Amino acid sequence: MKKLMLLLGVVLLTIPSPFAGKNNASPKKNKLIVEKISETRELAPGEAIKFMSDSICRSLGIPSQLVREIGQNESGWQCIRSLSGGTDYGDLQVVESTFNFWYDRLDLEGGKTRENYLIVGIHYLKYLHTRYGSWEKARFAYARGHWRNKTTWTCLEEKFMNKINWRKYDV
């Protein structure tokens, strides 16, 4: 039964959806992902959220391994509140103002759920990639609000940015 539910989830989650429309998103697709991931709860909780992340990435054309690396760096894939006293939350540590903006823009439902924070974070990363033209610049802007030249990075910024091999993503 578990394999059948997982297979059903994979089939339904990999149906392509265009990255187009008023909000550059498909709210129905996002809702389908959330509904189907809830049906795969027999997976370990950490694996279910990564499965959902991979599905969203596939639907938007984002390297899923990059999002996994960002989640590992941001929270260790633990849906947590900010450890630095900020308003960021979730596996990808989305700040509240960003969450609110993208939640409305994507026409999501259900409030501040782990799944919605993940959807918002991945869509925001896609937007930043479109804006800056590289995954490295998008990742830096994701963490710091906008891209800055490497010569201006702090030691902390160098540390989190150098954890990722950018040649795998920016060809």
What are the SSEs and their pairings?
Layout: H1 2-13, H2 27-39, H3 45-60, H4 64-75, E1 80-81, E2 89-90, H5 96-105, H6 114-132, H7 135-144, H8 155-161
Helix pairs in contact: 1-2, 2-3, 3-4, 3-6, 5-6, 6-7
Radius of gyration: 16 Å
Return residue spans where pLDDT drops below 50 for at least 5 consecutive residues.
1-25
Morphology:
globular
Main structural class: mainly alpha
Strand order of the largest sheet: 1-2
In whole angstroms, how far apart are the ends?
A: 41 Å
| Largest sheet report | 2 strands, antiparallel
Strand content: under 5%
What percent of the residues sit in helical stretches (DSSP H or I)? 55-70%
Number of strands: 2
Overall average pLDDT: 81
Spell the H/E element sequence.
HHHHEEHHHH
Give the number of helices.
8
